[in-house]
């Protein structure tokens, strides 16, 4: 059984294009230490998952594939889906977070509408990845003009993830969420992006998230 699990896991990873394989590793960060994930090749990641999730590595992978929108791979390899994907742990500030001054009434650079105090829905890693996949080439413009991020930080993100635009967008959104902490809600991001030159589908997606 273990051999079949290993073989299937490797075939799933090999079926992913490089960009989505890197995205899969990023989405595993809450369960596997980043120090193990980031340098891992496809066979190495299979070994890590088999060790950390014995007998359950396929369902863990299936959960991430669902976040990436690769339901076709779940069906092709008949992967078992987890009963429930645990919520991510609440973010805690770390020492390398830049100390950014901002308007206390808004997390938007241009002064958007603050999120309502009643049960605001905070953005998860999955939400951020889904928004990142929809952002276009104007990501730096969005980050500087609408999210109030520093250009130097965006250039650092680009250098750390060469040739992977989806991860540039994802890390940019995570940087904004780290800064906003508890105010990083769906409504807040929607307000920030409302005046940006973006695919209208992004605002529709955020609108749908508010109803979840």
From TrEMBL:
Gene3D superfamilies: Death Domain, Fas. InterPro entries: DAPIN (IPR004020), DEATH-like_dom_sf (IPR011029), Death_dom (IPR000488), DED_dom (IPR001875). Residues 147-198 form the Death domain. Transmembrane segments: none annotated. One of its GO terms (biological process) is signal transduction. Residues 4-79 form the DED domain. This is CRADD protein. It comes from Pomatostomus ruficeps (Chestnut-crowned babbler).
């Amino acid at each position: 059984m273990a051999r079949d699990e290993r073989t299937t896991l490797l075939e799933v990873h090999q079926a992913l294009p490089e960009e989505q394989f890197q995205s899969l590793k990023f989405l595993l960060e809450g369960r596997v230490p980043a120090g193990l994930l980031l340098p891992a090749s496809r066979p190495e990641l299979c070994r890590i998952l088999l060790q950390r999730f014995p007998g359950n590595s396929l369902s863990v992978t299936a959960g991430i594939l669902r976040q990436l929108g690769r339901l076709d791979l779940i069906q092709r390899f008949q992967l078992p889906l987890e009963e429930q994907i645990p919520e991510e742990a609440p973010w805690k500030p770390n020492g390398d977070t830049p100390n950014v001054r901002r308007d206390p009434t808004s997390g938007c650079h241009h002064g958007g509408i603050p999120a309502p105090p009643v049960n605001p829905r905070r953005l998860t890693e999955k939400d951020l990845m889904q928004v990142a996949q929809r952002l276009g080439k104007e990501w730096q413009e969005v980050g500087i003009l609408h999210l109030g991020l520093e250009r130097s930080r965006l250039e650092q993100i680009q250098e750390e993830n060469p040739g992977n635009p989806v991860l540039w967008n994802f890390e940019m959104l995570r940087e904004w969420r780290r800064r906003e902490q508890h105010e990083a809600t769906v409504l807040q991001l929607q307000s920030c992006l409302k005046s940006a030159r973006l695919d209208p589908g992004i605002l529709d997606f955020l609108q749908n998230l508010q109803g979840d």
